[in-house]
Amino acid sequence: xxxxxxxxxxxATGLKGVRVIDMTRLIPGPFCTKILSDLGADVIKVEDTEKxxxxxxxxxxxxxxxxxxxxxxxxxKRRLRLNFKSKEARDVLCRLVKxxxxxxxxxxxxxxxxxxxxxxRLHRINPKLVYVSLTGYxxxxxxxxxxxxxxxxxxxxxxxxSFKDGAAEKNICIPxxxxxxxxxxxxxxxxxxxxxxxxxxRSRVKLDVSMVESLVYLNQHRxxxxxxxxxxxxxxxxxxxxxxxxxxxxxxxxxxxEEKFWLRFCDAVHLPHLKETGFDSDKNSRATAELTxxxxxxxxxxWESLGQRFDVxxxxxxxxxxxxxxxxxxxxxxxxxxxxxGLCESTLFGKRGKQKYHKVLxxxxxxxxxxxxxxxxxxxxxxxxxxxx
Length: 389
Fold this sequence. Notes:
This protein is an alpha/beta fold. It folds into 2 domains: 19-222 and 359-383, Crotonobetainyl-coa:carnitine coa-transferase, domain 1 (Rossmann fold, 3-Layer(aba) Sandwich); 251-316, no CATH class. 35% of the residues lie in helices and 18% in strands. It has helices spanning 28-38, 68-74, 87-98, 111-114, 119-125, 150-157, 179-197, 211-218, 259-268, 281-295, 300-310, 320-326, 364-370, 375-383, and strands at 19-23, 42-48, 61-63, 66-67, 78-82, 102-105, 130-135, 205-210, 241-245, 251-255, 314-316, 329-336, 339-346, 355-357. α1 links the parallel β1 and β2. Mean pLDDT is 93; it is low at 1-5.
């Protein structure tokens, strides 16, 4: 494969000089702070000395005992392990907070307060700190104390109702993309934090980011008024808005929703009798069957070329090679503890310079020195098991 090269965008650095203390785990919080890091922030990821971030328990493993997802979410962040059973470890974190701009945690409501690291205490140390609690159900709802995962948050927000099988609409499909984690949690939290940081006169800001409430916001157009908004016809019921398998076992997406595109497509494939299909259910079923046979007769490259030539909203479903070729991904080298790995990254925030995945104990001395600890104090904190060693 020949990868097309283009001059990459400069890396986004709008949050350069912003320091974030990240006490989150798994996907939502770390994805939020990955966005902040990609925008230039200095992120210090704080993990406990026992299990750390248990995202690294889930295979596949890219580097030593670090999972692929863990490396993806936490590269370019500095890492520190603290034993939060120790009061002194909590004092260490408070010293870090003193010169930080944002603190984010994702424990169940009440847990962080029991650790004596609630907003009231941290704001006494640093009133300009943006304090963020990121949870599934929020801090003060009837489900606040309950456990949950992506499927539960999508259910509670009603978003899961949107994933109905077009061919058998009574069936609900579970997407293999964690929408609550990546969008409702990570993306919305990063947006709210960035907005808070823009206020230079901020004081004692506390953000309660609920993944369920974020998903309701994402899906609120369905509940805007009593006139039901039904977009179920976009779930595969229409021949003109459908996915089709090609001869080379690839897939293409036809999105000729507007009449002008549909008519142009019918002409392009020499099937003028399909122009009258409209939105009739029976006609669309027959048209879909006919197009299924047609698309299976040619390879995906042919259909991609036809879609571009006639501009009829026909697109091959991209794979990794396609994204590299189109310039949406770029290959880069990641330094992992002395070894280097070839990986790929989105070009959204521009091409970054040297990138590194920090081993969990690599940054202990530097982070603690930055907080004002002497070499002797650091040695004692390690010896007493206050910090990871």
